[in-house]
Structures are given as C-alpha cells and as structure tokens.
C-alpha cells in the first residue's frame, strides 16, 4: 500500500473514531506512520483529504446509478428503484460522520464548496442523474408521465439522507428494505 492510500485509510479511521473536528492532521499522520508535511505533499488541505475519503473509501452512488441506468426498460421499475434507494441509504449512513462534521465547520465547508465548484462535483449530481433516469422511464411508458421526475428524484434521495441521519439518533421501527419499498411505491404510484 502506498503512502497516499495509508493517509486516506488513516483519515477514514480518525474520522470514525474522533469525528471531523478530532481528525487532526497530527492524528492522521501518527496513524499513517508519516509526517504531517507528507500529508500536505499528497493533499492540498484537509478538505481534499476528506473528499478523497468520501470518493475513494466509502460506497459510491455512481456504480448504483450506472446499474440503474442499465435497468431502464428492464425488470420491475419499483424493484430497480428500491435497490438503488437501499444503496443510497447505505451511502448516506456511511458518510454522515463526514457530512455532519463538514457542515459544523464553516472554514471546512467553505473549502469543500470551493473544491466542489472547481471540480464540478457535488451532492446534487446523483439527484440530477436519477431524475434523468426517471424521465427515460417515463418516455418508455414505465412511469406515470405526470410525475415530476426532478421532484421525485429529490424526494427519494432526500428520504434516504433523512433516514440515515435519523438512524444516528433513534432506532427506526421498520427495516430498511421495507421502508425503501414503501417510499418508492409512494413515489411511482400509477
């Protein structure tokens, strides 16, 4: 394993153990068995390092969106969307520690916003991609054309995000799979 990978692994571990605020470059360097200067040789700042943790170590939505795109016109639309919703829920559950910490740190969120703008990335992109998939299913006659695809995508992703956050505070009454199926069935009702 290379130095960059060790640093990312150490950052992920530090975030899960100490939160964003406690994931200092000093702690990360000790865990990665390197100097703080070496961290900055590989990453411009903590924002870039934390984004690398998000993009490279946590479950990603891009493969799930690609799989959903491949299922357009095939199989059961509700089942396909439910499988995607479960992946989105898992993604948000794993990223809640980073997201919450970033939101609570004004300089860090400013750095993240600037970096996302520079790279053209951001949390809105999966919603846009999902909306386009829903529109394609509408054009194929598999979803009600009266559904606002953009709103439905926002609601589905928002519901997944909300449930992941709620689960940090309380035990939820129903299992994730039945919850996802119910949410999808509500959104795609014909």
From TrEMBL:
DNA-binding feature ranges: 24-43
Source organism, top-level taxon: Bacteria
Pfam families: TetR_N
PROSITE patterns listed in its UniProt record: HTH_TETR_2
Keyword terms, alphabetized: DNA-binding, Transcription, Transcription regulation
HTH tetR-type domain residues: 1-61
Keyword Aminoacyl-tRNA synthetase: no
UniProt-listed PANTHER family: HTH-TYPE TRANSCRIPTIONAL REGULATOR BETI, HTH-TYPE TRANSCRIPTIONAL REGULATOR RUTR
Name of this protein: TetR/AcrR family transcriptional regulator
Protein source organism: Nonomuraea antimicrobica
């Amino acid at each position: 394993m290379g130095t960059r990978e060790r640093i990312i692994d150490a950052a992920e571990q530090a975030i899960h153990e100490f939160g964003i605020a406690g994931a200092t470059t000093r702690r990360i360097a000790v865990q990665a068995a390197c100097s703080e200067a070496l961290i900055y040789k590989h990453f411009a700042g903590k924002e870039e390092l934390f984004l690398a943790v998000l993009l490279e170590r946590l479950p990603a939505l891009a493969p799930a969106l690609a799989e959903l795109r491949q299922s357009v016109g095939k199989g059961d639309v509700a089942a396909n969307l439910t499988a995607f919703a479960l992946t989105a829920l898992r993604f948000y559950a794993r990223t809640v520690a980073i997201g919450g910490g970033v939101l609570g740190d004004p300089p860090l969120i400013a750095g993240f916003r600037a970096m996302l703008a520079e790279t053209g990335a951001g949390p809105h992109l999966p919603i846009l991609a999902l909306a386009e998939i829903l529109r394609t299913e509408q054009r194929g006659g598999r979803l009600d054309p009266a559904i606002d695809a953009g709103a439905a995508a926002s609601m589905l992703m928002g519901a997944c995000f909300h449930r992941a956050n709620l689960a940090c505070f309380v035990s939820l009454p129903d299992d994730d799979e039945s919850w996802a199926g119910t949410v999808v069935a509500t959104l795609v009702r014909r």
